[in-house]
Amino acid sequence: MNARFKPGQRVRVREWYPPGHVRTPYYIRGKSGEIERVCGVFDNPERLAYAKADDPKTLYRVRFRQSDVWERAERPNDTIDVEIYEHWLEGT
Amino acid sequence: MSDRHPHHPEHHRPSTYHEKLTAAVLELLAEKNILSPAQITESIAVMDARGPHLGAKVVARAWTDAAFKQRLLADGSAACREMGIDVGTLKLVVVENTEQVHNVIVCTLCSCYPKMLLGIPPAWYKSKAYRSRTAREPRKVLAEFGLDVPGDVTVRVHDSTADMRYLVLPLRPRGTDGWTAAQLEQLVTRDAMIGVARAKEPAAV
C-alpha cells in the first residue's frame, strides 16, 4: 500500500463529523500541519470497532503548531503530534 | 460513612455494577471453558509484573549505549525486543528530550499508555483534566507537576490517538559521568518517562 503523503508535506485534517467510532480528535479537525512520519498500515479503527478487519489504511503522525490549533496558544512554536489515518487527510 | 473508608473499599460495601459484571463474565468464561481461573490469574500476574522498572532499563541503556539509542529512536519496539522485553504487537515510538525540546505524552481520546514498559497508568493520566488540558495548555499542566519548562525550550505534546505508544527518553542528569546503567536506572521515574517530570538528580539517590 503506497503512502499518499511524505514526511514534511503540508496536510489538512478533514472537517468531517461521521457517526460511530472515530479516532480523529475533534480539536484537530480542519487544522493544518505537517507529516512527521509515516507509521505504517493499520486496520481502520472505524471498521475494527464493528469487528471488521477489512479496511487497511496508512497511518501518519502529523505535527501541528500550537498556534495553528488554538487561539491564544501558550507558545506558538510548541507543537502537538497526532496520529491520523490517510482518509482523514487532504493535501493543501 | 464508616463503611465507606477510602482505604478499605471492599469493606461492608455493596458491589458496584462493574464489579458484578466482571464477576459474571469471569464465571461465564470458566463455565464455557474459554479461559480457566488459573489462566486468568496467570495473565493478571503477567500484567502486574510490568512496571516502570522496565522502561527505566531501556532509558538507562540508551544513556550508556549510543548505538542502542539510535536503534531505539528508529524503532522502539525492535530495540525493546532486543533487550528481551515483550512489547506485543504495538508500535513503540520513543521521543528524546534535549536541551531544546521537552516531550510529554497524553491520550486525549481515552488512556493509551505504554503499559508494556510502564505498567498500569496512574489515575491522573486517565483523568479528563489531564487529557484535555495537556493538549490545550501543556506548560501550565507541567508547572502544576512542578516542572517549569524555559521559554526557549519547545514543548512537544504527543497525542496517542491510534496504534502508536509513546515513551519519553528523558535528559540524562548532569553529574552522572561514569555511572553504570544499573545506577542510572535509579534516576528514571515513571513520570519522567511520561514527560511530566525530569529524571531524578544524582543527589536524590
Question: What does this entry look like structurally?
Answer:
The complex is a heterodimer of chains A (92) and B (205). With 92 residues, chain A is mainly β. Chain A has a single domain, classed as SH3 type barrels (Roll). Chain A contains two helices and five strands. The model of chain A has no long low-confidence stretch (mean pLDDT 96). With 205 residues, chain B is of the alpha/beta class. Chain B is 44% helix and 12% strand. Chain B has eleven helices and four strands; from the N terminus they run H-H-H-H-H-E-E-H-H-H-H-E-E-H-H. Chain B has a two-stranded parallel sheet. In chain B, helix 3 packs across helix 4 and helix 4 packs across helix 5. Chain B starts with 16 loop residues before the first helix and ends in an 11-residue tail after the last helix. The model of chain B has no long low-confidence stretch (mean pLDDT 93). Strand 4 of chain A pairs parallel with strand 3 of chain B.
In short:
Chain A contains 2 helices and 5 strands; from the N terminus they run ββαβαββ. Chain A has helices spanning 45-48, 66-69; strands at residues 10-13, 32-43, 56-65, 79-85, 89-91.
Based on the coordinates given, report the CATH architecture of chain A. Roll
Query: What is the string of helix and strand elements of chain A?
Result: EEHEHEE
Mean pLDDT of chain A: 96
CATH top-level class of the largest domain in chain B: Alpha Beta
When the domains of chain A are counted, the total is 1
- With strands numbered from the N-terminus, the spatial order across the biggest sheet of chain A is 4-3-2-1-5
Q: Quick one: biggest sheet of chain A? A: 5 strands, antiparallel
Any idea what the CATH superfamily of the largest domain in chain B is called? Nitrile hydratase alpha /Thiocyanate hydrolase gamma
Query: Pair with the most extensive interface?
Result: A-B, 22 and 22 residues
